[in-house]
Amino acid sequence: MEYTDKVCEYFRNPKNMGRIENPDGVGTVGNKVCGDVMKIYIKVNDDIIEDIKFETFGCGAAIATSSVVTELAKGKKIEEALKISNKEVVDFLGGLPPIKKHCSLLAEDGLKAAINDYRDKQKNSAPSPIKSEDKQL
Amino acid sequence: MEYTDKVCEYFRNPKNMGRIENPDGVGTVGNKVCGDVMKIYIKVNDDIIEDIKFETFGCGAAIATSSVVTELAKGKKIEEALKISNKEVVDFLGGLPPIKKHCSLLAEDGLKAAINDYRDKQKNSAPSPIKSEDKQL
Amino acid sequence: MIYMDYNATTPCDKRVLEAMLPYFGDEFGNPSSLYQSARTAKKAVEKARADIAVLLGCAPEEIFFTSGGTEADNWAIKGAAFQLKDKGRHIITSRIEHHAVLNTCKSLEKVGYEVTYLPVDKYGVVDIEELKNSVRKDTVLITIMYANNEIGTIQPVKEIAETVKEKGVYFHTDAVQAAGKIPLSVKELGADMLSLSGHKFYGPKGVGALYIKKGVKIAPFMYGGEQEKGKRAGTENVPGIAGIGKAAEIAAKEMVEEEVRIKKLRDRLEAGIKDRIPEIVVNGHPEQRLYNTLNLCIKHIEGEGILLHLDFEGICASSGSACTSGSLEPSHVLLAIGLPHEIAHGSLRLSLGKHNTEQDVDRVLEVLPGIASKLREISPFWNKGK
Amino acid sequence: MIYMDYNATTPCDKRVLEAMLPYFGDEFGNPSSLYQSARTAKKAVEKARADIAVLLGCAPEEIFFTSGGTEADNWAIKGAAFQLKDKGRHIITSRIEHHAVLNTCKSLEKVGYEVTYLPVDKYGVVDIEELKNSVRKDTVLITIMYANNEIGTIQPVKEIAETVKEKGVYFHTDAVQAAGKIPLSVKELGADMLSLSGHKFYGPKGVGALYIKKGVKIAPFMYGGEQEKGKRAGTENVPGIAGIGKAAEIAAKEMVEEEVRIKKLRDRLEAGIKDRIPEIVVNGHPEQRLYNTLNLCIKHIEGEGILLHLDFEGICASSGSACTSGSLEPSHVLLAIGLPHEIAHGSLRLSLGKHNTEQDVDRVLEVLPGIASKLREISPFWNKGK
Ligand SMILES: Cc1ncc(COP(=O)(O)O)c(C=O)c1O
Ligand SMILES: Cc1ncc(COP(=O)(O)O)c(C=O)c1O
Ligand code: FES
Ligand code: FES
Questions:
Q1: D76: CA distance to ligand 2 center in Å?
Q2: Ligand nearest to the Cα of D201, by number
């Protein structure tokens, strides 16, 4: 496996790993290609991803991309975070071996799943347009 | 090809090579397996092979066995010479590679053909029982 | 660097390389040529054949050189299948074979052969009764590996061979991981064909051999010149063949001592890991296992991560087999012994050899627990409350 | 020793051996493994692939390593035949191919393929018109060698490739004797597949390559691991591959100069023999011929005797091709160019190479006439009255 130095670096020292207790959103995704699993936890404030953490059962690329996607998302508005693509993650890492391209999808999908979960929860707990204020209480 | 030293020796310095002018018998045989050709010339006196020579178009084994068969036959009575087998020739040379066994048949057959030729000529030229005396004249 | 991946490949023994060198240089002749200098090459090939014959306890004429274990497996299976195609087109193998066997069988399925893939028990052992029951009238070949490359399980090959003999079917065994490691005698065994590969026992890569019992006829695999008695064409890889011969000679002499030494190291490694890392599974048969092989699953984490961290520490190991490390599926062997997908994914194979020392073992024991913890920290499956 | 049998095999160039050595020792890793040290091996394989690609003027991805020329030929022919079996089962080749091609074709005849063996003219050249006329609707492959190993005749491969392209049939060429000797560009040529072998151009024995043009699909020949993009399984012969790569690199650089030097020697040899020995026939095309090859028949005598005498003088040569030197039949190539049996039997192939000098040539010229006379003296066909 020919990983770039950056992949190795992020794999060795991943950022934002672990869990968030009482997160606002959690996404759990499984990779269709290899069966690996990623979980993303987010804490949202004022439509901004204030905190984000991941747990990944997967290959080196999966762990590195998990870390990168959380870094890219942190501090971003939800809308912007949704624009983060796996291509962006891969480019950030200086590329991935062809056989490992699919791993970066896990990261993109995991983030999206967490955001969706957050939005679903919002809808359910506070179906009024002032839901964000509610949450601030 | 793994020839014994003796085969090499006989191949390099064959005995009795060449022709006999006005021979008493000539045998020309072709090898069914490889198409090679041997010619044996004999000079017979008093039922004894007084002189014998060969010409061979064939492999190293063919040349070596030609030489050996002439040596073995020289000075022998016709009856005895007919008993010379290719096995005897091969043994004399310390063996031949399996793929070369057939070459020694050429030598045996060549000698027999020469003797037959001699006998045929005897029959034709002197059909009486006193043919050998005739010849001595 | 600590190398613990001897089942993937081994370095050439220095004596092996030395035995090879003349045939690159002065003695470079083509063994098929007539002249003196080529005969030296020819002799080297025949000496190697005799050395392999000694290793396997057979006659030199029963050894045919190939380009490796893969070719030997392909040849044995296809050669038997094609030779006996008018007798029948059913083949029996197991689910834990090397891909050289499995994929060859699969390729035959595409051209009208039927293949039974026998299941194995949780240790990776083929059930002899099941094997017996699978033999049909049109079965022409049974191919069961001697020792598994991933988990090290050694099959009851002799019993299998006996079963097969009763049924009058050809029996081939892929002994690529066994030959040169453990004593084996084809005569005792009664196998009809046996594959081996040089680079698994300190010989060179790119050369192997197929034992074909006298009287057993299989179709050639490669056509061309009259090399290997017309059964395997192609100019002989003389240095390679001289090398595998030397490796066989050395193995025959040193194998038994090495077994004692390496088994001790492996057992120390196994015990040490069990002591230091919770929730692990050791794969393979507890006793009937290659003495150098330790295959384990560290639950809740994935194998590649372990390998990368080990690599950062200068430790070479593998997960699954080397030749499928480009693949994303968990090992077919681990699935066959009944491990669930996510556990199978976390496998680590440490296979020891000639150059390993106690220090190597201790270094792995020092490093591995930390790696396991680190990856478990990131894992969604690990109960951090513990 | 004077070696004049470079078409049979060549010694490894010293630089080639040097390029190989690390991969027997420190860099022995399995290229399929993940860790750092194995990546060095992987890189060596990819570098070699690129070097061969330069030699042939193609992309590295189009090069697949094999165990030699024979495997490359077998694979190309069988792989194409099996891949296209639903399209048709007719193959065209020539009567002067190497046995690696001929015998592979014959093996296919046994399983339902039809093969046309094109005749050649007295120089050994295939008739393009005849080739065109032989192409049928069900023709799937044409395989014609680049340069003949016995007589050195070079085929009009480019014209053949063009003919073939019109017809939409796969075209393979056995370039085992051409690659590394003469510049060739598969792109210019338009071949779909091309075989070469390391030990014919100062690389190691036991390693070759098959060029497969991008887009051309053929069935794999060996099944197993995912090596060579899943097209040719088996742990890579890393030292061998590094060696053939280095040999290609050297050939690409030095080929043209060598051609000039060696051709001069060969021509001097040819002229000298013609001057000194009566009743000889020089075989092969007068111009379209490998610059290093001199094949001649010394009438009235048989080839083996010449070789033995040359061997006594320390001169290595051959009669026919090396791999059939165990055979008793005269060369199929010489029969195909129309020589009668007894003349074909007296053939002598002198093939020159890197280490030959003018002195070598002169020594052969000194010795050969005496050998010819001596054998002619014994020959029943030689008219001693002359
Ligand atoms: C059990 C087994 N069979 C076959 C092979 C293939 O051997 P090779 O790599 O020499 O082609 C291997 C190793 O790769 C193996 O472990
Ligand atoms: C024209 C030709 N094709 C194929 C081969 C076979 O190559 P190898 O000996 O590497 O298998 C040879 C030489 O032996 C050859 O000269
Ligand atoms: S292989 Fe599964 S995520 Fe990379
Ligand atoms: S090969 Fe013809 S006589 Fe020996």
A1: 14
A2: 2
| pTM of the complete model | 0.94
Q: What is the DSSP string of D40-71?
A: HHHHHHHHHHHHHHHHHTS-GGGEEEESSHHH
Instruction: Give the contacts of D133 (CB within 8 A, at least 6 positions apart).
Output: none
Domain of residue D47, residue span: 14-251
Chains B and A touch (3+ CB pairs under 8 A): no
D176, D212: one domain: yes
Whether the Cβ atoms of residue B14 and residue B108 lie closer than 8 Å to each other: no
CB-count exposure of residue C320 (10 Å: 0-12, 13-18, 19+): buried
D307 shares a domain with D239: no
**Which CATH number belongs to the domain containing residue C293 in this structure?**
3.90.1150.10
Whether D283 shows a pLDDT value over 80: the answer reads yes
Question: Is residue D158 domain-shared with residue D234, that is, in the same domain?
Answer: yes
Q: Which of D223, D251, D279 is the last residue of a domain?
A: D251
pLDDT at A63 over 60: yes
User: Same structural domain for residues D201 and D189?
Assistant: yes
Kindly determine whether residue C305 and residue A60, on different chains, have CB atoms separated by under 8 Å: yes
Per residue in A76-133, pLDDT (tens digit) is 999 999 999 999 999 999 999 888 888 888 889 999 999 999 999 988 876 555 444 4
* D134-149 core/surface letters (b: 16 or more CB in 10 A; e: else): ebeeebbbbbbbbbbb
Closest ligand to C-alpha of residue D351 is: 2
D198: CATH: 3.40.640.10
Per-residue pLDDT of D32-41, as tens digits, reads 888 887 889 9
Same domain membership, residue D164 and residue D210: yes
Q: Which domains does chain B have, with CATH numbers?
A: 5-122 (3.90.1010.10)
Closest CA to D198 of D177, D225, D168, D223: D177
Whether residue D215 is found in the same domain as residue D309: no
pLDDT at residue A30 above 50? Answer: yes
Nearest to D308 among B11, B14, B19 (CB): B11
The pLDDT tens digits for B53-89 are 999 998 899 999 999 999 999 999 999 999 999 999 9
Predicted-complex ipTM score = 0.92
Contact D222 C9 (CB under 8 A): no
The ligand 3 atom nearest the CA atom of A62:
3
Planar angle of CA C305, C310, C315, nearest 5 degrees:
150
Judgement on whether residues C109 and C171 belong to the same structural domain of the protein = yes
Residues of chain C with pLDDT under 50: 321-324, 386
Interchain proximity C378–A18, CB inside 8 Å = yes
Q: Which domain-ending residue is among D220, D251, D282? A: D251
Band of pLDDT at residue A9, cut at 50, 70 and 90: very high
Interface partners of C (3+ CB pairs, < 8 Å)?
A, D
Q: How many residues does chain B have?
A: 137
pLDDT the model gives residue D322: 45
Does residue C335 share a domain with residue C280? yes
